[in-house]
Design goal:
Helix content is about 65%, strand content about 5%. By secondary structure, the protein is mostly helical. It has four domains: about 90 residues, Multidrug-efflux Transporter Regulator, Chain: A, Domain 2 (Orthogonal Bundle), CATH 1.10.1660.10; about 80 residues, Multidrug-efflux Transporter Regulator, Chain: A, Domain 2 (Orthogonal Bundle); about 45 residues; about 55 residues.
């Protein structure tokens, strides 16, 4: 079965239309005429778009939509960029582009692997790389057809987005190990939370809510830990010199608190002594009056 490394112009339109509803074949051809994109051509002249072509097209459409840039300015920006992924990040494309989603009936369905490029805009070789690293499964039918579970589509899309940052499937194996380890912990907790439910629908709804709550909490811990590690490494937030400064600040603060406490103690003792002296004088005066 031959793998497809390119998308047709119609497949590119279908892939991007969710984010850019006005996109059409003619608009893509116009951008080509203006020299902004240069798709591969088959011997018969058909246009074929690589992943890099699609990424470049997304940057163009994003800058038109959000920055209202004229095409000549966009072309200059693209030509001067050393890395397309970095440019996409700088202009906000990677964070602004909505993730595509499928209806429930698509997710819960097995799809021939050759249909996935049309559905998700990724190459078959990329899906195989995900499967080789245990991120998704390629299922063999009795007639030896290769099938992809629709429930893996979200993983495929997320990994495709990460690929923009040059994070390849082999770099994501650690998350497979982590998911395998965490799943047993989740299962133990969720079994206790589910209890006895009257119907599968009720059980599934409860499971969804409980899983989301657990995931949000554990994901929050993971995100905070990861952020701290990365920022400490890249920004050297706590250096030796910083530690000396922190020590000095803490010492000054402690000295100030000690001085304030001593002053307060002295003032309190003075007030107590004053009250005692006053009471003593009153007692002495009272005794004199009696005598």
């Amino acid at each position: 079965m031959a793998e497809r490394s390119y998308l047709s112009i119609g497949q590119v339109v279908n892939y991007l239309r969710g984010a850019y509803p006005d996109l059409s074949n003619s608009k893509i051809r116009f951008l080509e005429d203006e020299g902004l994109i240069t798709p591969h051509r088959t011997p018969k002249g058909y246009r074929q778009y690589s992943k890099e072509d699609v990424d470049r097209l997304e940057v163009i459409l994003h800058l038109q939509k959000t920055r209202y840039m004229p095409l000549n300015v966009i072309k200059q920006k693209l030509d001067s960029a050393t890395d397309l992924s970095t440019l996409a990040f700088e202009v906000g494309l990677l964070s602004d582009l909505p993730m595509k989603s499928e209806p429930k009936e698509t997710k819960q369905k097995l799809h021939p692997i050759e249909d996935v490029p049309d559905l998700l805009g990724v190459e078959i070789s990329f899906i195989r790389a995900l499967a080789d690293n245990d991120l998704v499964r390629i299922i063999r039918s009795p007639q030896n057809r290769e099938l992809v579970d629709g429930r893996d589509f979200e993983i495929i899309r997320l990994c495709s987005e990460l690929n923009r940052f040059h994070i390849e499937p082999r770099n994501l194996r650690q998350y497979v190990t982590s998911a395998n380890r965490e799943s047993s912990m989740f299962e133990q907790v969720l079994i206790g939370m589910l209890g006895m439910d009257d119907s599968d629908d009720e059980r599934n709804q409860k499971l969804e809510r409980a899983f989301k709550k657990l995931h949000d909490l554990t994901d929050g811990v993971h995100t905070a830990l990861l952020k701290n590690r990365v920022f400490e490494s890249l920004n050297a937030i706590v250096e030796d010199a910083d530690l000396d400064t922190v020590d000095d600040e803490i010492s000054r603060a402690q000295a100030a608190r000690t001085k304030a406490l001593a002053s307060e103690t002295a003032q309190s003792a003075s007030r107590t002594s004053g009250r005692t002296s006053t009471a003593s004088r009153r007692d002495t005066q009272a005794k004199r009056r009696k005598s």
